[in-house]
Amino acid sequence: MNRLTDDPRWLPAMSERVTRMVQRDRNHPSVIIWSLGNESGHGANHDALYRWIKSVDPSRPVQYEGGGADTTATDIICPMYARVDEDQPFPAVPKWSIKKWLSLPGETRPLILCEYAHAMGNSLGGFAKYWQAFRQYPRLQGGFVWDWVDQSLIKYDENGNPWSAYGGDFGDTPNDRQFCMNGLVFADRTPHPALTEAKHQQQFFQFRLSGQTIEVTSEYLFRHSDNELLHWMVALDGKPLASGEVPLDVAPQGKQLIELPELPQPESAGQLWLTVRVVQPNATAWSEAGHISAWQQWRLAENLSVTLPAASHAIPHLTTSEMDFCIELGNKRWQFNRQSGFLSQMWIGDKKQLLTPLRDQFTRAPLDNDIGVSEATRIDPNAWVERWKAAGHYQAEAALLQCTADTLADAVLITTAHAWQHQGKTLFISRKTYRIDGSGQMAITVDVEVASDTPHPARIGLNCQLAQVAERVNWLGLGPQENYPDRLTAACFDRWDLPLSDMYTPYVFPSENGLRCGTRELNYGPHQWRGDFQFNISRYSQQQLMETSHRHLLHAEEGTWLNIDGFHMGIGGDDSWSPSVSAGIPAERRSLPLPVGLVSKNNNNRAGHVCPYFA
């Protein structure tokens, strides 16, 4: 790439562009840095233009990323997609971690990432670690997320209905497919869930809790807080116990200490959380009254408590046949297929509850970050999706190892074990117990062992197609927006209630979406799940999401698809062309448990609310 920029015959063309830019824009106060261009290597022509700009405008820095991001033609170390702690020692031009770059011998320049956090599809995982580094090291001065808006165009089908088109939809060959669908907002400016994460990490007020004291730090450089109230609330499993409000009076770069009253210590079991939010009571030129500009949440220490199960004199009845184990209790029945080892059906009265058995699940519909640059005609073997395919994760079949039933004093216990295999090789061993007691609760424990020589799975969990289509989903956990293990700092622990349609995120290129982490309770239709899990729920199966190229081609399937995960890999986002998604399972721990309890109810009266903190 240096051939043209080292060729003096190209200096006039390059000079023409740079000199006219400076002469045109030098009186604009919004222009704070000059750039010598984009991705053009580095040569003598750049050095000459750098010297010219510094001679005519010494007041502004010059930045240029080409040639390694730290050449003599830039005042700022300005890499693209450098990672926080991981070096990328490419042979021609190494790309160091942003922390290492600061420590190179003789290096004193600041570092600003001219592009980072590639927001393609379901992405922006790991964004928080960048901002932790920015706040820790003064010479790390931020970066520019790539980028703001999905670059799709509207086309119309044969019935005149609009749909979002991307590369290849215009007869263009070759093309970059959905590569330009990389914004924090959709093309119509509807926010991606990732925008909430970006907003939260970049908020101007930071908080620290020490005992009963909240320390509020302002990151404004010039503005004194004059339109902010700090609301605080303590809640147990989403139920408010105490709250208050304090005016903020913080100088630029200053701090304010807020002493809270004695906080409640409830005796009942549950998670106790303190949530603070900064509210602007008055409208501004850019925001409405009541706008929330910052928030934070901490889990508080809880008293130990034991909730004894209600005494029940009922005992489930077990019937054994050649094909099935059937358990009955009142108007409820559970059926386990002895040939497959799966829970094949549940009834409440005469209504079937399942359209598919409850099965293990280890895969997800690939994200853009899982696919990377891999294409059907040019496979990248390093891409996560190609590793999963090559290992047989998508084709694995269950071989039944054990399926037994035992009648206990007050319950029925089903024990199963499966080996998930591909081409004779065992990839996963899944052991489950189902304990159905006299209250009608089914306690499920799942323990999965992952083969040491197979790639980390995308998820470890359970999957089924429920027969019902309920209007709303109610859960106690992180929300309200979609969140993933490496993109959840903006999620709030509370009790949420949303329409089923809002549990799906309409990425133009369909993929895994809609996960909610840190869930303690999920209510949907006549069912309640309790435990410590992650879930997503929608009308679209993972299979359909995998096989569909555009969101407008998806069709709502019968019933509702539910995924309950004990583990889900992060989504990544350092870039979208190399495996930036961390596996998430420690190498020494390839066995993961998933405890979850399922209660089938005759109705669901659990109340929830739409988030008061992020509206």
Automatic annotation (TrEMBL):
One of its GO terms (biological process) is lactose catabolic process. Keywords: Glycosidase, Hydrolase. It comes from the Bacteria. GO terms for cellular component: beta-galactosidase complex. One of its GO terms (molecular function) is beta-galactosidase activity. Residues 326-597 form the Beta galactosidase small chain/ domain. Pfam families: Bgal_small_N (PF02929), Glyco_hydro_2_C (PF02836), LacZ_4 (PF16353). It catalyses: Hydrolysis of terminal non-reducing beta-D-galactose residues in beta-D-galactosides. Coiled coil: none annotated. Its EC number is 3.2.1.23. It is an enzyme of class 3 (hydrolase). This is beta-galactosidase. It comes from Escherichia coli.
